[in-house]
Amino acid sequence: MFDRALTIAPNDPAIICVKAETYLAQGDIDTAWGMVSKLHISPADNGGGLLMDLLSKRGQLDEMMAQGLAVAREEQHLPPPLRALVLAGAANLYLAKGDRASALPYLERAERDRKELRQNGAISLQLHGFYIEMESLLGNRAEVEQEIQELFAKTRMDKWEFPNSETAAGIGYVQLGDFDHAIPLIQDALTQPSAQSLTTADLRLSPHWDPIRGDPRFQKIVESLKPKEPPRPPDEPAQFLCRAEAAQCLQGRGRLRSGRVAAHSSRDTGLPVF
Question: Would 223 be classed as within a structural domain?
């Protein structure tokens, strides 16, 4: 499917990124990285979120930090919703490294934007996810649960989005050390199709889940849901995209919808996954 799309739009970054995502979903991070690294994109470009996700899963945290902070330095030129994402993401990068002092300026500005956006009812689904991670890294359980409550209220009736919200909530509880709340959320998110489905490859590769790796329940989930078949060869990426998105790929648009504020998957857009 992707090779056919690329014959129509050779070297189209959006299609290449979608193709790379199929490998990443299978856990073939090397092939995915080989494709994305050749594009020479930045976090601000379409596909930048996938770039940051790959850097995170490859353990290239210093490079991820450098890329993310380069975007944050341009905050004054960004519209408020986009600026809020960048500031919260930068804060999360420092918090994940345990550097609260460096995170503080970004936290203060992120909180300023959050208050304004909340008053206007303009907090996007992804931004809720960023705030959940931010507050969980700070150990603020009440704030984490407030963000989860607001996110669930927006998506509970949307079967295509709600599993993504469960993933975000699961990450929050994992960072808080509350594995009893996290496990059911992870299980449900894994078994439900969604706009950006959680996979066992995500569980194995993403540092978001590092605190829970020693929990036997988490280990059982990862083992029980491992693919039964070996990875497909490079010219046959997994055909897991729905028909509508496959058609978009053939039209040169792919799943990397532009404008992260409108989209809900952090790998869909030119915004970094922090």
Answer: yes
